Automatic annotation (TrEMBL):
<feature type="transmembrane region" description="Helical">
    <location>
        <begin position="185"/>
        <end position="201"/>
    </location>
</feature>
<feature type="transmembrane region" description="Helical">
    <location>
        <begin position="213"/>
        <end position="232"/>
    </location>
</feature>
<keyword id="KW-0812">Transmembrane</keyword>
<feature type="transmembrane region" description="Helical">
    <location>
        <begin position="12"/>
        <end position="31"/>
    </location>
</feature>
<dbReference type="InterPro" id="IPR043747">
    <property type="entry name" value="DUF5692"/>
</dbReference>
<feature type="transmembrane region" description="Helical">
    <location>
        <begin position="110"/>
        <end position="128"/>
    </location>
</feature>
<dbReference type="Pfam" id="PF18948">
    <property type="entry name" value="DUF5692"/>
</dbReference>
<feature type="transmembrane region" description="Helical">
    <location>
        <begin position="157"/>
        <end position="178"/>
    </location>
</feature>
<feature type="transmembrane region" description="Helical">
    <location>
        <begin position="276"/>
        <end position="295"/>
    </location>
</feature>
<protein>
    <submittedName>
        <fullName>Uncharacterized protein</fullName>
    </submittedName>
</protein>
<keyword id="KW-0472">Membrane</keyword>
<feature type="transmembrane region" description="Helical">
    <location>
        <begin position="244"/>
        <end position="264"/>
    </location>
</feature>
<feature type="transmembrane region" description="Helical">
    <location>
        <begin position="79"/>
        <end position="98"/>
    </location>
</feature>
<feature type="transmembrane region" description="Helical">
    <location>
        <begin position="38"/>
        <end position="59"/>
    </location>
</feature>
<keyword id="KW-1133">Transmembrane helix</keyword>
Length: 324
């Protein structure tokens, strides 16, 4: 067992998971299919939330009781949550600029490397968090600013290394296209090889460092963009991932009670031995993915980061067929 999904609240936990999964898929479809949907989701709402966050922290610093007791102020204090929210949102805005060709940036060739840069930053944020946990709780436990007990040890190191390797599994940095319908930014060279390696690494990160949230942000949140990519939005995984991540972060930041103290709350078993096994799986998957990429690149005589290495594969060809 990876999660404590048994007992009196088990039915609610499964219902909560299904709701999160379905709502993320639906929200992603609304945000990706129209320019208005994307602008509202990733420009208007984040602007309103930024004012909300600043107001809360300013009022709390002044000793206002309502702010000091605000769920966001009490339960979402970690630097990680804000870093992830704004990094993901910036990614969404950049992806829209590319697919809609906004301004000179959206039309320029050099900006096509933006998806790689922003995804690498998002991965490094999590890697730093994994290493932070290793340092603070090595061989034992430590308590985060949100009151969550975390284990620190080799599992954090192994998964941190897996995350770094995962960055190098992103190939064809400049192979970014807009779909014919202008509803998606496509990265055809980001095939199942990267997606599986990423999902295993990121699930492991949430399992190591967010044990009270991983049921949702480690499973539902990762599966939503992956299912969309494999069944109806081929080549659009990275856009799916950014959109669903940003939407989830906004929800979780404003309504932390859903995950933290409601009938839907779900804990991982939070066992260092289980964490170690999951981390080793993530590390092996990323070693194999990078090895496969380098082998393909060598056979083709290309630089896998400057050129698209998966041309000719089913995933790539199905995705590139959607490009304008």
């Amino acid at each position: 067992m990876l999660f404590q999904v048994y007992g009196d609240n088990a039915v609610y936990q499964w219902i909560g998971w299904i709701l999160v999964f379905c709502c993320l898929i639906g929200a992603n479809e609304l945000a990706r299919r129209t320019k208005t949907g994307g602008v509202v989701a990733f420009l208007v709402i984040p602007a309103i939330l930024t004012v909300y966050f600043i107001t809360i922290y300013t009022a709390a610093a002044m000793g206002a009781e309502w702010a000091l007791n605000n769920p966001t102020y009490v339960h979402m204090t970690s630097w990680f949550h804000y870093a992830k929210l704004y990094a993901a949102t910036i990614g969404c805005i950049g992806f829209m600029a590319l697919k809609y060709k906004w301004g000179s940036i959206g039309k320029s060739h050099w900006f096509k490397c933006f998806p790689f840069v922003i995804v690498a930053i998002n991965i490094l944020i999590a890697v730093v968090s994994d290493f932070e946990s290793a340092i603070r709780g090595w061989g034992g436990t430590w308590v985060s600013t949100e009151g969550v007990t975390l284990y620190g040890g080799w599992h954090n190191v192994f998964n941190g290394v897996a995350g770094i390797l995962n960055i190098f599994c992103m190939t064809g940095w400049f192979g970014i296209y807009a779909s014919k319908k202008k509803d998606d930014m496509l990265w055809p060279d980001m095939t199942w090889v990267f997606i599986v390696a990423y999902d295993l690494w990121n699930f492991c990160y949430t399992y190591n460092c967010l044990p009270t949230h991983s049921w949702y942000c480690g499973l539902a949140l990762l599966l939503a963009p992956t299912v969309a990519n494999f069944f109806w939005n081929k080549g659009g995984w990275i856009q799916n991932r950014a959109f669903t991540l940003a939407i989830w972060c906004m929800f979780a930041q404003v309504f932390p009670m859903f995950q933290d103290y409601s009938v839907f709350s779900t804990q991982s078993v939070n066992n260092p031995n289980v964490n170690l096994v999951v981390s080793l799986i993530a590390l092996v998957a990323n070693v194999l993915a990078l090895g496969y990429i380098l082998i393909r690149a060598k056979k083709q005589g290309i630089n896998p980061w400057m050129k698209e290495v998966f041309k000719g594969t089913k995933d790539y060809e199905q995705a590139i067929a959607r490009a304008a």
